[in-house]
Amino acid sequence: MFCVGTPVLDNPLILQYILLHFQDDPSKYDNALTEIINLNHSFADVETACALKRYYAQLLMMKNRFPMEEGDPIKVLFCWYDRAMDIAHSATYDDIGFELACVMYNIGAVHASIAVNEARESEDSIKNAFMHYQYAAWPLQYLRDKMNASKYASVDFDKELLTFFVNVLLGQAQECLLEKSLIDHRSNLVVARLAIHLRDRYQECLRHLENSNLCDYVSSQKYKVGWPF
């Protein structure tokens, strides 16, 4: 999981672009830029997940209004740190696409952390975990399939690794369904079918891990620091 760095969204080039392109007073947008920066949090709770989603939406609007991708006139440095590394290692790109990819990744990571922290000892807790495991899987699927994040130098954006994450998260969600069926005293047939589906899901995770080059990385102690499951 990445640890957030502060994007320099008060870059003079952005302010100059507002003045020249939109012919407006840049100082009018100081509070708006500050608000966008403050949306970027690093705690694993529902409030943070919501803030990250608002931040992502604001970044998309900025991307549509300002030329901030790699090679564009406005160069804003976005810097993120990898928490799983023994030595603090930053990745920095002057590309708003990198910031969008990192934020999307962290949306998934935050939802996964919320789900893992559920005790799952009550019906409500099981439902909450089930919901957040699914919420965690979708951002990683989107990151893998739609955002071309693998072009950035981070193993976390590797498509094979993201696929493994998605499978594990959906497996955990399926496990919540199985637990709920036991609490509800569902029929043996229903419980058995859910258990078989869960077994197949985890076997798929294992096959994917064994058929890729991810085994050493995922099992490393450094990596366990980064992801809760």
UniProtKB/TrEMBL annotation:
Residues 1-229 form the BRO1 domain. It comes from the Eukaryota. GO terms for biological process: early endosome to late endosome transport; endocytic recycling; protein transport to vacuole involved in ubiquitin-dependent protein catabolic process via the multivesicular body sorting pathway. InterPro entries: BRO1_dom, BRO1_sf. GO terms for cellular component: endosome. This is BRO1 domain-containing protein. It comes from Heligmosomoides polygyrus.
